């Protein structure tokens, strides 16, 4: 082996690295904060680009010292840095959530440890005024050895942290050769078991910083507000000799607001300090992210940074920022891109943050590791609270083999191998310090998280102790402190915020009733996997109810998928766990975001946007026109933040619309009123829709950006949809053609001039519907209780299949008919059951067929309560051929369910059948529309219509639910050749049970008895 075995030595995490420090990019002069353009600094040399690379499936296959001068890299290829070698065709992708990809044997890793050799040649000229050179790696997975011009530079690990080396004495004028050996696994792998695809390589920027001999090396800026002034303290350390340093602070208009020189004042950490006051300061918060510019003028070097003046604290278990109680409207974000993996560019990062802001997020958790430094600078600028999390997760220790595999025993013993093992204290402290030290000057960071899902023990007690001692200006949290054994009493004194993942509302309520002394944070909630989440509104209401409940972070931002080009049918291919023949994987559990891998929004993101809209209408007095409006912002006056537009509609047709300006202030957390009288027709389903729009443009949101809406039902004499009312009336218009009926043991035939129907007495359902000589059905009608399980049904799915819901069929016991007022009345007693199982449902069905062929059905249903909640109940039709579009009145324009409908409003909508399909990457139930009065499905002149006296839901698709259930990927779906129509009494709710609590009772389709009525009409477009 050509390198020492540091990668299995817990005592060697770094060799020859510089002490960790605050992030900044120096320059020879003031060049601005250098956030999006840091490479413009004349003291930075970016080494990204094409590197020579060779992959070895084992460290033992690397026998040649490729880093030596003159080595011929003839067997190397070119790859892009930053990048990951799996995306270059080497090794393979692997997705795992909890389980380690290697045996659980810390600190040892497999002997056959894959590695990649990198070589980069570059030109360099030593600068007279900045002769020192520091080599920076911002992200390498998992560990690496470095050589410059054949000389050993050092070793480092911690994949998502910056490693800095002094390479001054190794550089030469002219051509230089940088060589790096990256190993796939090291002892740090046991602390980097995050829920993500596992990728390897130099995945973040590599650069040199040229600096003077003596420099201001590190500084820590803190702020404190005192009445009409702010006190800003800068503590600093030098490298080499101390020298005069001038610090100037500018406001946004470039006015000087403070100037100070660093003075010697020694503490246990820093040697110098400057304290200055800013009169009448503008404070930083996510809604008004005001930043001052700080210029640190040294000898032959300038560091330009930005300051946000804010204080975060806890009073009576409530979190306050700048003396204002705040709520975190947050999301968990991984670095993930379908093409570049977790090598993420500035533009990719900005797009994420722009979309988050547009959808009303105000906070981000850097799950579960530090992001690149400029990510936090963007959060400062755009306005986001940040939970900055250390690169520490040993989740896989939870998967150790135990005789007693009960969750109680597993959770108690989770911490034994690492988090409560003193041997891992140095590594845990190192990861914490690397996170905190680098980003300590970012105002957006308000909470330090020690890591994720490790259990609790001495390692975290020490990390928390150090963090609170070093930075008392911020809060701390660590969710996994919840999991520990009974062997001793643990120290929780340095945890400020009690955080939980996926608690039920009942668990939160229980915590509140104990009158706790710490805020409660939903550090992960509303698991957004596939079609979901469905419980955002319920959590929002509870967050509003309790000041101690300081908000939450939805899991998670994006689906993690690997782009693999296009399938033969032209569809984009995104692969997930198991698609790469991994021995250990967790399937599509990585597809759990609010956006698709390419950042196309899921409907769950739209749901979040409207649940967390900045204002809500509390009440509307239709007679007086007074609207009571609550400001759900924490810092800004609604009058200054937004304007309103309104529209009244009747049966989906606009009646009146306009724009409203708020004249009077509505302060944060307060309620105000505005006046709006509207015209309301006497008949029809009428609504007033108030939409909220951004009043002034920001760095990432244009003026007028949509922020959400409220919808208010309006009272009138007859609130039924008038078209639905008409459809429910008899359509014969004096048509007097007689209906003929005859039967045998199996069938009842019903015939008139324009139609011929066949009713199966054995199933209690229609088998054929023929209109004017054309068969409309490709298969018999079905009573339908199955849906293609959503990801949030993953725990229910087994119950449902055990109950036979996916294979249940009807059986009629008795069918009779009679003629009444020119109509045929069919009466059937039937049941629904699966082979080998008892009946799920008993159904009494009454079908009425008019002489024009209209079919009206009323079903009285009784469920055997031994069975679990139903996926759905309704009728399924297979309309022959592919219809083109659907028009409906109900909730739209996109899919909606009983607990996932807040982003939809009532209206008259038209969409192609293709557009009605929400194309989840793992196929599942999708595209339902709730609270509908009628739906019409069209193909040329042909129209199929369904209308009901009570609101119903429907799906229309070219895909069967069996096809959606069967296929693992959306690009594998095959059309049925028919138009599949599901007309539902109801569906089970969506929830977030893929990783969260069970679906709430009020959203379960689990009533013992219910009645479903609907009318079917067939005809041509008049």
Could you give a short account of the major beta sheet?
A: 12 strands, antiparallel
| Strands, total number | 62
What value does the Rg take, in angstroms? 32 Å
Overall pLDDT confidence: 97
The total of helices stands at: 12
Sheet/helix structural class = mainly beta
Helix content: 10-25%
Strand content: 35-45%
Based on CA inertia axes, which overall geometry fits? globular
Spans of at least 5 consecutive residues with low confidence: none
Distance between the termini: 82 Å
Secondary structure topology:
Layout: E1 14-15, E2 44-46, E3 49-56, E4 77-81, E5 94-96, E6 115-124, E7 132-137, E8 140-141, E9 143-148, E10 151-157, E11 163-166, E12 174-183, E13 196-198, E14 201-202, E15 206-211, E16 215-226, E17 229-239, E18 246-250, E19 256-261, E20 263-264, E21 272-279, E22 284-285, E23 288-289, E24 292-297, E25 302-307, E26 312-315, E27 318-321, E28 324-325, E29 328-332, H1 346-358, E30 363-365, H2 373-382, E31 385-389, H3 407-413, H4 425-439, E32 445-449, H5 458-470, E33 475-477, E34 498-501, H6 505-513, E35 520-525, H7 536-545, E36 549-554, E37 562-566, E38 572-575, H8 603-611, E39 615-621, E40 626-631, H9 638-641, E41 642-650, E42 653-660, E43 671-675, E44 686-694, E45 706-713, H10 722-728, E46 740-743, E47 747-751, E48 755-760, E49 765-771, E50 774-775, E51 777-784, H11 797-802, E52 809-820, E53 823-833, E54 839-849, E55 855-863, E56 872-879, E57 885-892, E58 905-912, E59 929-939, E60 942-957, H12 961-966, E61 979-987, E62 1009-1020
Parallel strand pairs: 29-30, 29-36, 30-31, 31-32, 32-33, 34-35, 35-36
Antiparallel strand pairs: 1-10, 2-15, 3-4, 3-6, 5-13, 6-12, 7-11, 7-15, 8-14, 9-10, 9-12, 16-17, 17-21, 18-19, 18-24, 20-21, 22-23, 24-25, 26-27, 27-28, 37-38, 39-40, 40-43, 41-42, 41-44, 44-45, 46-47, 47-48, 48-49, 49-50, 51-56, 52-53, 53-54, 54-55, 55-62, 56-61, 57-58, 57-59, 59-60, 60-61, ...
């Amino acid at each position: 082996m050509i390198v020492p075995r540091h990668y299995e030595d817990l005592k060697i995490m770094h060799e020859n690295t510089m002490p960790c420090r605050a992030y900044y990019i120096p320059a020879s002069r003031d060049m601005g904060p250098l956030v999006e353009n840091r490479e413009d600094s004349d003291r930075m040399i970016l080494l990204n680009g094409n590197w020579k690379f060779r992959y070895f499936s084992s460290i033992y296959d690397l026998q040649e010292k490729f880093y030596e001068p003159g080595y011929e890299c003839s067997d190397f290829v070119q790859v892009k840095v930053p990048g990951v070698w799996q995306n270059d065709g080497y090794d393979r992708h692997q997705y795992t959530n909890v389980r380690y990809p290697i045996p659980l044997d810390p600190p040892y890793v497999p002997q056959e440890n894959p590695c990649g050799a990198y070589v980069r040649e570059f030109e360099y000229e030593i600068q007279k005024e900045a002769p020192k050179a520091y080599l920076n790696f911002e992200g390498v997975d998992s560990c690496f050895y470095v050589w410059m011009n054949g000389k050993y530079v050092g070793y480092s690990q911690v994949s998502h942290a910056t490693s800095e080396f002094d390479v001054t004495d190794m550089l030469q004028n002219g051509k230089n050769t940088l060589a790096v050996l990256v190993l796939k696994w090291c002892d740090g792998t046991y602390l980097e078991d995050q829920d993500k695809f596992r990728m390897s390589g130099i995945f973040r920027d590599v650069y040199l910083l040229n600096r003077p001999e003596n420099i201001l090396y590190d500084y820590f800026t803190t702020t404190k507000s005192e009445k009409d002034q702010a006190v800003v303290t800068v503590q600093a350390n030098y490298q080499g000799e101390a020298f005069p340093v001038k610090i100037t602070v500018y406001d946004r208009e470039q006015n000087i607001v403070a100037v100070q020189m660093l003075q010697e004042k020694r503490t246990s950490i820093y040697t110098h300090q400057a304290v200055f006051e800013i009169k009448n300061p503008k404070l930083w918060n996510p809604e008004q992210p005001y930043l001052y510019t700080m210029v640190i003028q040294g000898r032959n070097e300038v560091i330009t940074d930005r300051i946000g003046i804010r204080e975060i604290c806890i009073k009576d278990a409530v979190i306050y920022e700048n003396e204002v109680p705040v709520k975190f409207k947050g999301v968990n974000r991984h670095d993930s891109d379908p093409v570049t993996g977790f090598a993420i560019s500035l533009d990719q990062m900005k797009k994420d943050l722009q979309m988050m802001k547009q959808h009303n997020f105000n906070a981000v958790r850097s799950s579960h590791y530090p992001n690149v430094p400029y990510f936090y600078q963007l959060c400062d600028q755009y306005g986001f609270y940040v939970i900055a999390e250390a690169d520490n997760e040993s989740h896989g220790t939870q998967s150790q083999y135990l005789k007693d595999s009960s969750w109680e025993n597993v959770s108690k013993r989770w911490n034994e191998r690492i988090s409560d093992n003193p041997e891992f204290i140095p590594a845990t402290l190192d990861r914490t310090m690397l996170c905190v030290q680098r980003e300590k000057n970012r105002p957006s960071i308000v909470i330090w998280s020690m890591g994720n899902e490790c259990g609790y023990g001495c390692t975290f007690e020490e990390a928390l102790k150090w963090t609170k001692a070093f930075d008392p200006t911020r809060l701390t949290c660590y969710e996994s402190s919840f999991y520990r054994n009974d062997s001793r009493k643990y120290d929780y004194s340095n945890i400020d915020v009690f955080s939980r993942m996926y608690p039920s509302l009942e668990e939160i309520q229980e915590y509140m009733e104990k009158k706790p002394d710490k805020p409660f944070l939903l550090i992960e909630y509303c698991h957004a996997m596939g079609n979901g989440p469905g419980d955002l509104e319920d959590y929002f209401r509870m967050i509003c109810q309790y000041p101690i409940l300081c908000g939450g972070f939805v899991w998670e931002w994006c689906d993690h998928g690997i782009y693999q080009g296009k399938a033969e049918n032209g569809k984009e291919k995104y692969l997930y766990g198991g698609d790469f023949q991994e021995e250990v994987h967790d399937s599509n559990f990585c597809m759990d975001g609010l956006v698709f891998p390419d950042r196309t929004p899921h409907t769950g993101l739209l749901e979040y946007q409207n649940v967390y809209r900045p204002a809500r209408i509390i009440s509307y007095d239709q007679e007086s026109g007074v609207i009571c409006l609550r400001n759900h912002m924490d810092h800004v006056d609604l009058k200054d933040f937004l304007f309103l537009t309104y529209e009244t509609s009747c049966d989906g047709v606009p009646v009146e619309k306009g724009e409203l300006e708020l004249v009077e202030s509505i302060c944060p957390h307060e309620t105000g009123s505005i006046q709006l009288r509207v015209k309301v027709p006497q008949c029809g389903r009428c609504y007033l829709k108030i939409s909220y729009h951004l009043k002034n443009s920001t760095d990432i949101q244009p003026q007028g950006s949509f922020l959400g809406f409220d919808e208010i039902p309006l009272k009138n004499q007859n609130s039924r949809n008038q078209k639905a009312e008409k459809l429910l009336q008899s359509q014969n218009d004096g048509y007097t053609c007689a209906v003929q009926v005859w039967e045998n043991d199996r069938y009842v035939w019903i015939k008139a001039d324009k139609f011929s129907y066949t009713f199966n007495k054995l199933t209690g359902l229609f088998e054929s519907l023929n209109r004017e000589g054309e068969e409309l059905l490709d298969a018999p009608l079905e009573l339908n209780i199955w849906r293609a399980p959503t990801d949030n049904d993953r725990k229910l799915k087994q119950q449902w299949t055990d109950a036979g819901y996916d294979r249940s069929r009807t059986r009629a016991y008795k069918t009779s008919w009679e003629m009444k007022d020119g109509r045929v009345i069919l009466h059937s007693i039937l049941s629904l059951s699966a082979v080998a199982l008892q009946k799920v449902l008993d159904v009494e069905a009454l079908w009425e067929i008019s002489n024009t062929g209209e079919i009206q059905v009323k079903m009285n249903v009784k469920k055997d309560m031994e069975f679990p909640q139903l996926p759905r109940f309704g009728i399924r039709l297979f309309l022959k051929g592919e219809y083109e579009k659907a028009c409906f009145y109900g909730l739209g324009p996109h899919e909606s369910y009983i607990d996932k409908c807040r982003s939809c409003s009532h209206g008259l909508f038209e969409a192609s059948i293709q557009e009605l399909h929400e194309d989840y990457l793992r196929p599942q139930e999708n595209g339902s529309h709730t609270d509908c009065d009628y739906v019409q499905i069209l193909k040329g002149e042909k129209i199929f219509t369904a209308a009901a006296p009570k609101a119903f839901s429907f799906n229309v698709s070219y895909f069967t639910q069996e096809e959606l259930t069967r296929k693992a990927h959306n690009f594998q779906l095959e059309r049925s050749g028919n138009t599949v129509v599901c007309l539902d009494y109801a569906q089970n709710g969506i929830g977030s049970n893929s990783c969260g609590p069970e679906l709430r009772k009020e959203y379960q389709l689990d009533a013992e008895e219910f009645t479903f009525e609907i009318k079917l009409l067939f005809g041509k477009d008049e």
